[in-house]
Amino acid sequence: MEFFFTQNRPEQKIRNRFIWFKKWALERQTYKTLCRDSGYSKDTLQRTFYKILESSPVLKIIKRDHVNLRMDGTYFAKFCLVAYQDNFDGYTQLIRFTDGEHFEEVKEDLTNLLLLGVKLESITSNGDKSVLKAIKKTDENIIIQRCLVHIQRMCLIWLTKFSKHLAGQELRKHVLILLKIKTHNDRIWWIKNLNLWHEKHKDYINEKTINLETQRYWYTHKFLRRSYFTIKRALPNMFHYIDNPSIPKTTNGIEGYFSHLKNHLDLHRGLTLKNRINFIKWYVYFSNEK
């Protein structure tokens, strides 16, 4: 019979309990469940987890060719997390903690990814102006794919469900089938009908309301007009996925990732700001190991 002895050094204790930290961070396991399965008390596990959260892991950037990236930012109480994720397997190549999606920071991140061997073929984005500008300034050859779900979602907010005018009703129906476009013929038909809609209703969407006292004016049907021009401006970058199926047409994958992360973090509301940030780094690190 062989006997294995565990050294009693503090760092060894931390290593022995690391598996429970991983379950706590990644699998949404509560202290009650962890105490039952590990045999440790809640106080012991808490001390161990907070000790681990004093530091954070280094995320590894993997050299890859023909990378179709999806990028997005999500907001927490005191910071914004921007993530760059490979659509092939969901591997998160890079994250940044900041206060928003800024041109200089996004450009710096993309430049670093390229320098470290991540050869970007496309980037799917929600269409923030700073992000679009940063992509173009980094490398004009990177294909920009606009997130169709984001375009659809915004238009459906502006186009009321029970529009009184035919123009709003028709455009809403057209926007609702946006995600069903799969072929070049679908794309040609969809754009053709959008143009026909505009030709039919252009006088209506250009109607203005004038303040007789100040002579200032504004567009009467501003939300309808905004919906149309949002689509019109995005149109050149809406359908690259038809030519290359590896390009994601939405950022749903990374939005789902953010949602799971927030659900995990919500279980641990008592963490300090530093520990919340380090928790996110560990979560991303563990997720990349899958």
Automatic annotation (TrEMBL):
It comes from the Bacteria. It comes from Halpernia humi. It holds the Pfam family Transposase_mut. GO terms for biological process: DNA transposition. Required for the transposition of the insertion element. Belongs to the transposase mutator family. This is Transposase, Mutator family. Keywords: DNA recombination, DNA-binding, Transposition.
